[in-house]
Amino acid sequence: MAQGISTAATGGRVALDKLGVILAVLVAAGAFLLPFATFRANRIVLGEPRSLLEALAPAEAWALLALVVAGGGVALLRMPIRVKLAASVGVLCALLVAVGRAGTFLTPEGNTFARVSPGSGFWLLLFAFALMMADALSRLALSPGKRLAGLAVAAAILGAILVSGLWNDLSILKEYANRSGAFWREAGTHVLLAFGSLALATASGVPIGIALTRAPGLRGPVLNVLNIVQTIPSIALFGLLIAPMAWIAANVPGASAIGIAGIGAAPALVALYAYSLLPVVSNTVVGLDGVPRQTVDAATGMGMTDRQRLAQVELPLAFPVILTGIRIVLVQNIGLATIAALIGGGGLGVFVFQGIGQTAMDLVLLGAVPTVVLAVAAAIVLDALVEMSERPGVREAHA
Amino acid sequence: MIEIDAVTKVYGTQTVVDAVSMTVPSGTIAVIVGTSGSGKTTLMRTINRLVEPTSGAVRIDGEDNRALPAYELRRRIGYAIQGHGLFPHRTVAQNIATVPGLLGWDQKRIANRVDELLDLFQLDPAAFRERMPHELSGGQQQRIGVARALAAEPNILLMDEPYGALDPIIRAKAQEDLLAIQARFGTTIVLVTHDMEEAIRLGHRIAVMDAGKLLQYSKPADIIAKPATPFVKELIGAPERPFRLLSLVRVADLAEPGEAAGAPLDAGLSARDAYAELLWSGREAAPVARDGAIVGRVRLQGLAKQAARPS
Ligand SMILES: Nc1ncnc2c1ncn2[C@@H]1O[C@H](COP(=O)(O)OP(=O)(O)O)[C@@H](O)[C@H]1O
Ligand SMILES: [Mg+2]
User: Fold this and answer.
1) What is the number of other CB atoms lying within 10 angstroms of the CB of residue B46?
2) How far apart are CA B279 and CA B264, in angstroms?
């Protein structure tokens, strides 16, 4: 890698890629300065760093190093975007395979206490090449369909690695193996919290947004209140809800029977719902406001009733903007749902907070990594849907 | 027949339409003309109740237009606006099918009507049916806008500056088409414009508005010859008056027996265009041809007489 820089610099004629310079520095640090893996005799003792060359069998280590250096070189130099994409995807796959191999290589035969986890060098390399891939993808401006296909391929690769057992010697999967039942239960809760609050927010936020465009006097006050809710720190909001929810559970007949309590999933759902409302409501308002005035006038003038106009003209034209609000909410809620664990609401945050309590970073990762993967996947899927729902010509008509 | 009876519209403290009364006979074109902000659009929108008057009434064929629910009234009245207002998310066919759809026509009848209208506006149905509005030129969009307004065969058509966004050549063609369609179906048309030229070309009657008041409502020749107020005179443009008068007459109406040299003029040509042609070719007279046969001649002198102020 260092070689790559000097060649390019002394050569003078080789054009450098701006982002590539930063990537190359990250790659150099990840490959040479930081540990590729961390070895611990058991799950809570302090880890010992293992460099890339120590973490793998020599042949594999040198092969990976060569690949990483070559990938860094591709990042550094100006090259066709497709080459950059291929290089970044290739190195990413190699890294994912290698980290599993490192787990197997570093774990002593038959030892079930030892823990091998990805080191900071691995994460930095992963980050650098993911960034390179994201940059290449955004510059290629792929169609939504192709992006969804790409996501499916990535999911398939990840699934194949998991099923193959390649990562079974990594600490995070050992943590998983010890609590796979709990993992899927909490993952289910997590998804339920994120999507449930989204469904509630959509079902109520879109009608509220429609009402605000029909009653402009309410618009300012309602949006202000929702704005204030957004600014309450999430932990505070979760806490604030404990008292009223407990009161409801105690005083409203049947409330506790359907699961309402001061702590648990119910207040978590309510808090996530409260956060979700502003993006959905305000995007509905903005979307409806953006429908060209002439289009609305024509619809009314031709004899559509209010309801027909809303259903046939205004909502279809506002749909991409509303969907953008839904995208914001979903990605936000997948992340925020982690905090639900603090008030006993469950979700993947359970592992994060347990892990912090036990200073077991592997357990933290078991909660955090799926959350991040889920959020990224949701963002990609919804971005694609938003783009597919946008109609050419509609935006010019807005102008 | 549309009777506008002492219609007033007040917004806040501003009287936007001030006690306007006018009658548009069935099968004629009334053009409302005036400067921007004079209340033309507001007046026109009281007809299909997009604006409810503060006082006064609008009757259609003798019946108060409030007798029906507003949406039912509007489905019977064609409505075309500047910039066409096409639904950007619907195809050309779906746009045209809007009102027939609202009226519950069956699919086959709707499809036939769409094709019929596309033909009428010289757009090949097979090529245009499935296009989206943004895939059309400005002139095509405008034609689809009018086709959509006519889809359910309304007796009345309201048009608010329908040609405002078109270039002069396309606009002239669209105006010709409108006159042809009106003559063929006998539609009663109320058209709003700020362009006196357009008003004279299209209107059987012209309503001149200023600051909410109807200043004059007369045939074009009377508006030109006897403007009711200095404002009307100014709107016509004093130096333009002779030529505006000429533009009201066709060569056929002025043809006299006799011979003349040079290329013949078409009988359908306006006297104004004939006058320009004679001046340009340096002739005193020209033969007049109808369907290729010479039917007489027009003389510069005869045309000039037409341009003089009627006594
Ligand atoms: N809905 C409304 N509320 C308040 N004022 C209006 C409204 N519609 C029109 N006006 C005012 O009425 C006047 C006439 O408007 P309009 O009928 O659109 O004029 P024109 O079509 O002749 O340009 C303008 O001053 C306009 O600002
Ligand atoms: Mg107007």
Assistant:
1) 22
2) 14
Reduced to 3 states (helix: H, G, I; strand: E, B; else coil), residue B109 is helix
| Cβ(B164) – ligand 1 distance below 6 Å | no
With a 6 Å cutoff on the Cβ, whether B46 touches ligand 1 is no
What is the ipTM for the molecules in this complex?
A: 0.88
| Cβ <8 Å between A304 and B88 | no
How far is it, in rounded angstroms, from Cα A380 to Cα A376?
6
The closest of B268, B267, B278 to B301, measured between CA atoms, is B278
CATH annotation of A180-398: 1.10.3720.10
DSSP string, A5-74: HHHHHHH-SSPBPHHHHHHHHHHHIIIIIS-SEEEESSTTSPPEEE-HHHHS-HHHHHHHHHHHHHHHHH
First-to-final CA distance of chain A: 49
Q: How far is CA A122 from CA A115, A139, A169, in A?
A: 16, 26, 16
Nearest residue to A360 (alpha-carbon basis) of A194, A184, A179: A179
Residues in chain B: 311
Bridge partners of B64, per DSSP, are B59
Neighbours of A399 (CB within 10 A): 5
**Which distant-in-sequence residues (6+ apart) come within 8 Å of A42 by Cβ?**
A113, A114, A115
Q: Which of residues 257-296 of A touch B (CB under 8 A)?
A: 292, 294-295
Domain boundaries along the sequence of chain A:
4-171, 180-398
Which parts of chain B fold into alpha helices (H)? 40-45, 70-75, 92-96, 98-102, 107-120, 125-128, 138-150, 168-185, 196-202, 220-225, 230-236, 241-247, 251-254, 271-281, 300-307
Using CA positions, which residue lies closest to atom 8 of ligand 1? Answer: B42
pLDDT tens digits for range A61-104: 999 999 999 999 999 888 899 999 999 999 999 999 999 999 99
Q: Give the SS3 label for residue A263.
A: coil
Q: How many angstroms separate the Cα of A313 from the Cα of each of A98, A394, B287?
A: 54, 12, 56
Binned at pLDDT 50, 70 and 90, residue A360 comes out as confident
Tens-digit pLDDT profile for residues A16-57:
778 889 999 999 999 999 999 999 888 777 888 999 999 999
Number of other residues whose CB lies within 10 A of the CB of residue B125: 16
**How far is the C-alpha of A245 from the C-alpha of A251, rounded, in Å?**
10
CA distance B135 to chain A (A): 8
Going by C-alpha positions, the residue among A117, A26, A109, A100 that lies closest to residue A60 is: A100
Residue carrying structure tokens 């709107």:
B235
Q: Is B42 in the pocket of ligand 1 (CB under 6 A)?
A: yes
What is the rounded CA–CA span in Å between residue A67 and residue A83?
14
Instruction: For chain B, report the end-to-end CA distance as a whole number of angstroms.
Output: 32
Which fold would CATH assign to domain B2-238? Rossmann fold (3.40.50)
- The DSSP secondary structure of A197-239, one letter per residue, reads HHHHHHHHHHHHHHHHHH-HHHHHHHHHHHHHHHHS-HHHHHH
CATH of domain B244-306: 3.90.1280.20
Question: Please, which residues have CB within 8 angstroms of residue A310's CB and are 6 or more apart in sequence?
Answer: A210
> Domains of chain B: which residue ranges?
2-238, 244-306
> How many CA atoms lie less than 13 Å away from B249 in the CB half-sphere?
22
